[in-house]
Amino acid sequence: MNGYEWIFYGGIMALMAVGIWAILSRRNLIKAIMGLVIIETAVNLLLVAVGYVNDRSAPIVNGDTGLGDSPVGEVVDPLPQALVLTAIVIGLATTALALVAAVGYFRSTGTLELKSFTYGRTDETEVKE
Amino acid sequence: MMERSTIQRSLPALAISILIAGTLFLAFVEIGFGENKVDSEDAVANRYIANGTTETGSSNLVTSVVVNYRGFDTLGEVTVLFLAATGVGAMINLLPEDGKKRSKGPKPSLIMTQGGMLAIPVIALFGTYVFLHGHLSPGGGFQGGVIIATAFLLYLIAKPDAKTSHRTLSLSESLAGLSFIGIGLIGLAVSGIFLDNVIEGFGVLGELVSGGLLPLIYIAIGIKVGSEMSGLVEKMRGDAS
Amino acid sequence: MTVDPVLLIVIPLVAAFLVPITSIFMKGLAKWIPLLGLIGMAVVMALDFGDLYDGPVTSITGGFGPPWGISIIMTPFGGLLATGMIGVALFVMISEIDGKKRAHQTVYNTMVMMATTGAVGMVITGDIFNMFVFLEITAIAGVVLAAIPRDGHEKGLNWRGAAVYALVGGVASFLVLAGIALLYGATSTLNIYQIAERIEGVDTFVVGAAFLTMFIGLGIESELFPLNGWAPEVYRGSKWGTGSLFSGVIGKAGLLALLRISFVVLSPGLENGIVMDILLWVGAATYLFGEAAAFSSKDLYRVLGYSSIGVFGLLVASFSLGVADGIRGGTMLLLGHMLAKPILFSMMGFAGRKKKGDVPLSSLKGLIRSSPSAGIIMTIGILALIGMPPSPTFWGKYFLFSAAGSEGQWLLISILIIGTLFEAGYLGRMLFNIFDTRKERKADTLPLARGIMGALFVFFIFLIGFLPGPLEDIITFVIAELIDPLNYISWGSI
Predict the structure, then answer these.
(1) Do A46 and C181 touch (CB under 8 A)?
(2) CA-closest candidate to residue B197, choices B56, B77, B78
(3) Chain B contacts of A86, Cβ < 8 Å?
(4) Which of B32, B49, B239 has its CB closest to that of A75?
(5) Interface membership of B68 toward C (CB under 8 Å)
């Protein structure tokens, strides 16, 4: 316990709360997508934070970093960094698709507001034979 | 139905978001930050750090995890990107016409055109460097590919009317993806394990030619990501013009 | 005969990467490459299926065994589900072979294949982060599928579904990822089996938080109440095949992931049985909500969508009873739903194919006269979904009721009865319309491929309904997997 977890995790979770709040409370698609991107960023930071070890260096072994071939006890956890790479790519893909879908929604309805988000009951179009 | 006011909607949303984020915060504080967990024998990462260089031949341990130990994830990740590129292209084709005319915007200035043309080869070269040295230094196929795509983007900004070959892009994308799987299948054929790095001892640790099949996979990923991201940019331009 | 199960993923990926090349050089062929990929998956699955009778089929990737590399462990439950998923995808794709030119068929077929690949990957992988990657493949393919409109559909509802699913699915997967980060921080491993082994040493609050994120994330994917607001939007605006995939493939993968993570991995780290109780009542509420909403909907696409939501609830409830008969019933219900729902979607899509917006109940009117084969196939599908003997759903409900009765869960039984009444209500309405021949209708021929696939699934319904015996060996393994985590952990150490 050195107090850093309050700063790091507190900041990350504040971002997360902002993102979730934005998605739940905004009906504007673009604002909701911004919320999604904020959540993605928070989770990416979270992964890196989980792998950090105090006072250690990046897990790269070569002449310049001065680490041996087997740097046990000298480097941080490489696994979460590998996961973050994947998570960033996935976040990009999700955001790109969501944005295109938002453009499509805007062009077909003329608005970006998602009205009656819950269960699609209202704005029931009259069914004609 | 009456439209609820913003505050009425915001308060429950606030409660839910604070509940989720707060729970996670307390749980992560319980786990601790910066504590040494990797040195214990139980941690999977311990093996990556202790034997990563000898078992995979890569001096960048993150690369050894991304491409070798967890190479299957990376194949999935490449697929995600492929799906996104294909999907965005298809969805842009599906977009309804809104009948609006878009102005072309001002022509790029001389500085933009000439400076861009000067910078593009340098950026592309740097991107190639990044993915070729993925097993030695920070970076790798994804980062290098994205850098190459920025060169492509710069080209489109500098020369908005330029014709680009969609065919070449999707051809190189497909071939790079197939070579990634092909390299994986070499492992399946030789040792019966998909994506096995069958020649991990090849080369001298820390030199360009080392790491066995890792650099080859990263080259394939670099080309694939570069052409995919360029394709994405190109498709989005196709919609705007 | 054993084939490396990693081929279940590799073959469709090769096919997917071949699609762009083929569309450059042989344009007409490109849309059938995904079909070849699916057939390849089906062949691998058929070769491996016999081995599931002896336990899990395993493989490792990257050259390092678990927990360092990513292992593939196709448990009999996962294998059974994967077989069904591949079947549903083949049904969806082959049914559309009718010589007609459709726009975007190549992308549609590719995404059908990739959604199936992702779902199969989710159920056979032994690594929790790899599961997340496959979840994303499924979700992204799902967004594109939701954005592809029905033939001649004009309302732009597809965009609404796609946008909502992209948003909600994105939140779901990143919450799952936050849960994965938590579990990794607590156990220093990503192998599902090793996490299960170490979970008892983890602080209860941490496990609870992980359960919260996983429940929200995977609950969204498997359309559980109250996390399923997005689902009707998707069902309403997309093609019938997309509906079948969401109910038969994408949601089912989320369901298995939810069951596995909650029961096998997280449950031992929490207070006794609390996970089961939560899921049981969430499942029951979902069932009631789904069936009631289906009963009150007018658009047939949404009726079937809500009905799928109801079945998801029923499945979660029956698996969460935590007794052998509940799991036996759940497995049968799962198979019954995977066989009956695609039939209904397919025939309904055929009957309502000329509608430009929502498809009203009346478009089924006189189907038995205008197109007898479609009418008969749909009737059997409806009866199989209610649970007329002999159908898998009948066996499922039979075991479920007896399990709930022996556990003394009278509230659950009354919920089940009310839900079944709703179900009988809207399905009965559909039946009346099919047999309502008062008004003369123009004759309408069912396309051959669609008829053959429908008849094939009807055949499977009867096969499993009359001879559920051969499945019992596999169901024994399913029970072993879900009831005792120790079995599962021992399967993971290849």
Answers:
(1) yes
(2) B56
(3) 66, 73-74, 76-77
(4) B49
(5) yes
Instruction: Report how far apart the first and last C-alpha atoms of chain C are (Å, whole number).
Output: 18
Name every chain A residue with its beta carbon within 8 A of the beta carbon of B239. 103
What is the rounded CA–CA span in Å between residue C290 and residue C311? 8
Average pLDDT over every residue of A2-6: 76
> pLDDT tens digits, residue range C18-70?
998 888 888 888 888 999 999 999 999 999 998 888 888 888 888 888 888 89
From B219's Cα to the closest Cα of chain C, the distance in A is: 17
Would you say residue C399 has pLDDT above 50? yes
Across the interface, do A120 and C302 touch by the CB < 8 Å criterion?
yes
C196 to chain A nearest CA, in Å? 19
Burial string for B174-200 (b: 16+ CB within 10 Å, else e) reads bbbbbbbbebbbbbbeeeebbbbbbeb
Cα of C89 to nearest chain A Cα, Å: 23
pLDDT one-digit tens code per residue, A35-81: 999 999 999 999 999 988 888 888 888 766 667 777 888 888 999 99
Would the pTM count as exceeding 0.90?
yes
- pLDDT at A123 (0 to 100): 40
Residue with structure tokens 């989770």? A43
Residues 6+ apart with CB under 8 A from C122: C131, C134, C135, C138, C253, C254, C256, C257
Between CA C454 and CA C462 the distance in angstroms is: 13
* Contact between C310 and C251 (Cβ < 8 Å): no
Q: Which residue type is seen at C160?
A: R
Q: How many CA atoms lie within 13 A of C395 on its CB side?
A: 26
Q: Is B118 on the interface with C (CB under 8 A)?
A: no
The residue among C166 and B102 whose pLDDT is bigger is: C166
B9 at interface of A, judged by CB pairs closer than 8 A: yes
pLDDT for A70-87, tens place per residue? 788 888 899 999 999 999
Give which of C2, C4, C10 to mutate to test B binding, by max B Cβ within 10 Å.
C10
- Tell me the domain boundaries of chain A: 4-55+74-109
CATH of A4-55+74-109, one of 3.40.50.620, 3.40.50.1820, 3.40.50.300, 1.10.287.3510: 1.10.287.3510
Give the pLDDT confidence score for residue C280 in this predicted structure: 92
Residue of A nearest to B77 (CA): A86
For residue C57, the surrounding DSSP H or E stretch is strand C57-60
Does the structure show a pLDDT above 50 at B2? no
Could you tell me which chains touch chain C, where touching means 3 or more CB pairs under 8 A?
A, B
User: In this complex, which of B6, B80, B137 lies closest to A89 when CB atoms are compared?
Assistant: B80
Q: How close A62 gets to chain C, by Cα (Å)?
A: 23
Let me know how long chain A is.
129
Beta bridge partners of C73: C58
* Amino acid sitting at position C478: V
User: For an interface test with B, which of A24, A44, A97 has the most B Cβ atoms less than 10 Å from its Cβ?
Assistant: A24
Closest partner residue to C163 (CB to CB) among A102, A118, A129 is A102
Higher pLDDT, B62 or C28: B62
Sign of CA dihedral B76, B77, B82, B85: positive
| Record: contact A62-B13, CB cut-off 8 A | no
Taking the Cβ of residue B30 and every Cβ of chain C, the question of whether any pair is shorter than 8 Å is answered with yes
> Per-residue pLDDT averaged across C188-195, rounded?
90
- The mean predicted confidence, pLDDT, of chain C is 89
What backbone torsions phi and psi does residue C233 show, to the nearest 5 degrees?
-60, -40
CB atoms within 10 A of CB C205: 13
**Contact: A98, C143; criterion CB under 8 Å:** yes
How far apart, in whole angstroms, are the C-alpha atoms of residue B214 and residue B134? 9
Of A24, A60, A104, the CB nearest to B137: A60
